[in-house]
Specification:
Layout: H1 8-27, H2 31-38, H3 43-71, H4 73-92, H5 97-125, H6 131-156, H7 162-184, H8 208-212, H9 215-245, H10 250-274, H11 280-301, H12 308-328, H13 331-339, H14 345-372, H15 376-400, H16 416-430
Helix pairs in contact: 1-6, 1-7, 1-16, 2-3, 3-4, 3-5, 3-14, 4-5, 4-7, 5-14, 6-10, 9-13, 9-14, 9-15, 10-12, 11-12, 11-15, 13-14
Length: 431
């Protein structure tokens, strides 16, 4: 029975997530370099191969949602980890574009299932009051793992030595395998969930159409889409191009992302405690305010002379953006899984994941087109408008969101130190 303290099963999932993040950090910065410079695949073909991962995810995520509800989150996550493991192995030995595309497609299929299945499993293992703390800690550990993996990967790879790149992909495969075995031991949990008993529930057949008829869920999905369009997709895809147009070196861009990761790792639980008394929709308002401030930092940077001041502004932007991330990271998973009937959690979480994927397709296209025209003021203005829109959608969501799904961000009696201590003990036990 879930409690406010993390169960051994929940801690095991958290450990696996951390290990998996380290593996992702090994390869994320080097995939394009590996395909183009080591396997000698042209840049246009490399871009098309990388795009396969997102395209596969858009198709696979809704299917995963149905499978999670029918077969259980644990089984689907094991399957997703298996495909990701196979994809990393294939990429390690991808000597031609066809094999590279196959490896990336397998990684896309695996990655598409990991988030909805993992979130549905956590919702089963962790009590509603404790979920924001769990998701916040998971977000911090994810960033820590990716950061550590990226540093390790940078120390391992050597130009002109294909074996060093292969070693990274094989190490990534090992982390997927380790996570697989951690989950394989959870035999008593993660199966198909029964309909809720003793409450008034919709008896219509399980389907995505049923979810679409729910006003609160529609607005939650709209909010998720705005968050990705106005924030994350621009950070990942457009910000580096903007920085380069301001004559910022690639090294400074890399350090800026490191600042983002460091701030999240250092401050996640502290920021979450400071915001713990806010209801979830009100916390979104605070998130949008911080992200709007980050866009203002970029507006100022656009008018600074090239040099160290612009570099400092890039670091400040990433730090300010990170504060918004720390507030926002546990909100949507907690809202969605409190809205979801247990036997439909797969579809609920898959729909959120799909909205994220759609935003990551549209956002870079828009950002790239605007920055391609060097319309910096328009790009920044659209970002600020997006933050305002996010606050408006959050207010509209509050009007229809049940109180049980819009409770305060976290309970004061579940301190981060308790979770961190339990996790430390579990890591020691598993190693």
């Amino acid at each position: 029975m879930p409690t406010t303290r993390l169960t051994p099963e929940a801690r095991r999932v958290l450990v696996g997530t951390c290990l998996n993040a380290v593996g992702n950090g090994f390869v994320l910065p080097f995939l394009v370099i590996y395909l183009h410079e080591v396997r000698h695949i042209s840049l246009p073909v490399t871009g098309a191969i990388v795009a396969v991962q997102g395209a596969v995810g858009l198709v696979a995520v809704p299917i995963y949602g149905m499978l999670i509800d029918r077969l259980g989150a644990r089984l689907i996550q094991l399957g997703a980890l298996s495909m990701s493991f196979a994809g990393s192995i294939v990429l390690a030995y991808a000597v031609n574009p066809a094999l590279a595309a196959l490896g990336v497609a397998l990684l896309g299929l695996g990655g598409a299932g990991l988030w909805p299945a993992g979130t549905a499993l956590v919702a089963e293992l962790v009590d509603s009051d404790a979920r924001p703390r769990y998701f916040g800690l998971s977000f911090a550990l994810l960033n820590l793992g990716i950061g550590l993996g990226g540093i390790a990967g940078a120390l391992v790879v050597r130009p002109g030595h294909p074996g060093t790149y292969q070693a990274l992909f094989l190490a990534d495969a090992v982390t997927f395998l380790a996570f697989f075995f951690l989950l394989a031991g959870l035999r008593a949990v993660g199966g198909p969930q029964p309909r809720a008993a003793g409450v008034d529930v919709d008896e219509s057949p399980a389907s995505y159409l049923r979810l679409a008829r729910e006003p609160a869920f529609r607005r939650a999905i709209a909010l998720q889409l705005v968050v990705v369009l106005a924030a994350y997709s621009q950070l990942d895809a457009a910000f580096p191009a903007f920085a380069r147009q301001l004559h910022v070196s690639t090294r400074v861009v890399g350090f800026a992302f490191a600042v983002n990761t460091a701030v999240i790792v250092a401050g996640q639980m502290w920021v979450q405690r400071r915001a713990s008394a806010l209801r979830r929709t009100r916390a979104y308002w605070l998130t949008m305010a911080w992200w709007a401030a980050s866009w203002v930092v970029l507006a100022v940077a656009d008018h600074l002379p090239a040099g160290s001041w612009v570099a400092a502004a890039m670091f400040l932007y990433m730090a300010v953006f990170a504060v918004g991330e720390m507030i926002q990271s546990p909100l949507m998973p907690a809202i969605v899984n409190d809205l979801a009937e247990p036997h439909l959690r797969g579809r609920y979480n898959a729909a959120v994941s799909w909205a994220w994927a759609v935003g990551n397709v549209i956002g870079p296209v828009v950002g790239g087109a605007v920055l391609g025209a060097r319309a910096h003021a328009l790009w920044i203005g659209l970002g600020i408008v997006g933050c305002v829109a996010g606050a408006v959608v959050a207010r509209r969501l509050e009007e229809v969101l049940p109180a049980a799904a819009n409770r305060p961000v976290a309970r004061a009696d579940l301190e981060a130190s308790e979770v961190a201590t339990e996790l430390k003990v579990d890591i020691s036990a598993t190693t």
